[in-house]
Amino acid sequence: MTPEKFQMFENRLLKNYKHRLKQAKRLNLTCWRLYDHDLPEFPICIEFYEEFLYIAEYNRRHALTDEEHAAWFDQTKQIIAFLTGIPIDHMYVKLRKRMSHREGQYEKEAVTESKIITVQENGHQFLVNLTDYLDTGLFLDHRITRQMVAEEVKDKIFLNLFSYTSSFSVYAAAAGASSVTSVDLSKTYLSWSEENFAINHLKNPAAYHFVHADVKQYLKTLPANHFDVVVMDPPTFSNSKRMKDILDIQRDHVELINDVLKAMKPGGILYFSTNFTQFIIDLENIESKQVKDITKATTPFDFEGRLKRWCYKIIK
Questions:
Q1: Residue range 164-177, pLDDT digits in tens
Q2: Domains of the chain (ranges, CATH numbers)
Q3: Do strands 52-58 and 264-274 pair parallel, antiparallel, or not at all (unpaired)?
């Protein structure tokens, strides 16, 4: 790697840092994305989590030997440390393999020592794991969507499908939802969800429910006309052994959405999101005439131009 390439990276990082730090401070944010593969020679993603950095290196073919790659990454981290003021021992690095879905988030990796911290977003606390999984436990790209949900749920019955660590549910419960149900296939993430509720002092077993289930099957069991607000953010593809069926979001989204609509009250709101970049929504077969693409409206400042997901607001 030439000195000129490293200088280009330093210039881009400085530009991003100055611009985004200003916006993060204005919005009182301590968790935000600094860089995401802006330059092809530096295929990494850098995110702030309070005083720590999470750096994911995308798995790309390169002509570097192991020694050359190590030297490249050492110099890259030195540039990051110099510009951000974050010491290298506060950086946590993962190799992010090319995947078309979030199924990999369930796979725990072998690490020598876990690094779990508590971060805040809009007054809410979240446990973030910087070492053990592909993802940290908080999807920063849905920051605005979480606020939208919070504005809709007071005294409402809320359902969070494919809930992951239930950040949407925390927002809903804190905003005064009368009932909050979080559904996920992973017991690990449901336990993490309960911890997120606990650190936010959200304790009401009669109102807050954590359901271990295959969402596709679970939806078939729900009563009609029950929920007011629903969030559904499924993986693109899943063939987990814990599921009865394979999930393919392009093929299955109409069935999933229509099953959710049946379980919603008239006028109820569904926020549906997918990170399948080639996704095409089948408006003709969705049983709602009020489907609005809110992808742009839910794109945070630190993801502009680089967001790899879709988001829709669907009203029954």
A1: 999 999 999 999 99
A2: 3-98 (3.30.750.80), 137-315 (3.40.50.150)
A3: unpaired
The predicted structure's pLDDT at residue 64: 85
Nearest to 174 by CA among 129, 211, 231, 125: 125
User: Is the per-residue pLDDT at 283 higher than 90?
Assistant: yes
Supply the pLDDT for residue 189. Answer: 96
To the nearest 10°, report the CA torsion of 213, 219, 221, 226.
120
Compute the average pLDDT of residues 22-32.
96
The identity of residue 306, as a single letter, is R
CA nearest neighbour of 217 among 178, 243, 252: 243
| Integer Cα distance of 163 and 105 in angstroms | 13
Residue 193 has pLDDT above 90, yes or no: yes
Task: Answer whether 176's CB lies under 8 Å from 155's CB.
Answer: yes
- pLDDT at position 296 over 70: yes
Q: What are the structure tokens assigned to 95, written together?
A: 């190799």
pLDDT at 127: 98
Q: In the block, which residue shows the tokens 């950040």?
A: 167
CA-nearest of 193, 191, 190, 243 to 219 is: 243
Per DSSP bridges, beta strands 290-293 and 310-315 are antiparallel
The Cα-based distances of 300 to 18, 31, 209, 307 in angstroms read 16, 12, 29, 9
